[in-house]
Amino acid sequence: MEAKMRWVALTAVAPVAWGTNYFVTHEFLPADRPLYGAALRALPAGLVLLALRRQRPRGAWWWRSAVLGLLNMSVFFVLVYAASQLLPTSVASTVIAVSPLTMMLIAWLLVSERPGVTHLAGAVIGLGGVCLTLLTGVEGVSVPGVLASAAAMLVSSFGHVLTKRWDAGADVLASTAWQLTAGGLFLLPVAAVVEGPPPAFSAPTLLAFGYVALIATALAFAAWFTGLRHLPAGTVGLIGLLNPVTGVLLGIVVAGEVVTVRQLCGLALILTGVVLGRPGRVGRRADGQAPPRPVSGACPARDAFDAPPSVRVGEGSRASDDGD
């Protein structure tokens, strides 16, 4: 149980960092450049992780990295950027809290992780908390912003479960690095065509992009995908409810957004959902969870990523071991 809770604590780094991302994006990044904003979030983070984990995809992981990069990074980052600019921080971060329920259902279909009663109860209670938070009378809520946030939730839920299905023991940092790099490379030419030349950035904007790329992206996604490897998707999805809690608290404390009793009750329900989604004792599966279904055509762990030719075989093996 202690080991499981360590994985929970590591995974929780991701939603907390993502919750701060809404505030930083809303306050410091240009509102009219979502494509450049998403590209400059993904590509620097990917290059940093590639420098730390110098391994190349092998075989099917070339196209898998491209597909996952498109879903988890390109499309998701653009939608989150748009939602962050169109909605108050508290609302933008709360809509995506519906993801635990969608992650459980998609995981049931793709990796045969049948959700337990407590996980479903946690998701439903968390969803109730989301509804309470959204129905707090906040003025100026943008319908396109809510739709962008909801679409981001659906895309990320599918992409994260697909990552779990294809994982097969692949090195977490290498896989995350190539997804981020692919996502950024997809976005750059599209941004140049649609949004024109990149804008001039002030020092605060550059610092904000640095925080978003390194903390809210590189560190957060490495922690998240590590959690997906070691914990059930239902548990990971419920840990993601810390995202809206962080966003709401930042909106209240830093951005001066008004808190209501209904909003506080919603936060309490969301946290209750997180508690219900905690993993069970070691040696016992989550309620009724079926064993993961074997993935057809999955690459063995040693064949997913290769060290570059300049790195000796022994060094590459140690690097892969360190990433697990």
Report the principal-axis shape.
globular
Indicate the radius of gyration in whole angstroms: 19 Å
User: Biggest sheet, in brief?
Assistant: 2 strands, antiparallel
With helices defined by DSSP (H or I, 4 residues minimum), what is the helix count? 14
Structure notes:
With 324 residues, the protein is mostly helical. The protein has 14 helices and two strands; from the N terminus they run ααβαααααααααααβα. It has helices spanning 2-28, 34-52, 61-86, 89-95, 99-110, 117-134, 143-166, 172-195, 203-230, 233-239, 242-253, 261-276, 301-304, 313-322; strands spanning 56-57, 305-306. It has a two-stranded antiparallel sheet. α1 (2-28) crosses α3 (61-86), α2 crosses α9 and α8 (172-195) crosses α9. The radius of gyration is 19 Å and the shape is globular.
Give descriptors for this structure:
mainly alpha, 72% helix, two-stranded antiparallel sheet, 324 residues, disordered C terminus
Task: Describe the SSE topology.
Layout: H1 2-28, H2 34-52, E1 56-57, H3 61-86, H4 89-95, H5 99-110, H6 117-134, H7 143-166, H8 172-195, H9 203-230, H10 233-239, H11 242-253, H12 261-276, H13 301-304, E2 305-306, H14 313-322
Antiparallel strand pairs: 1-2
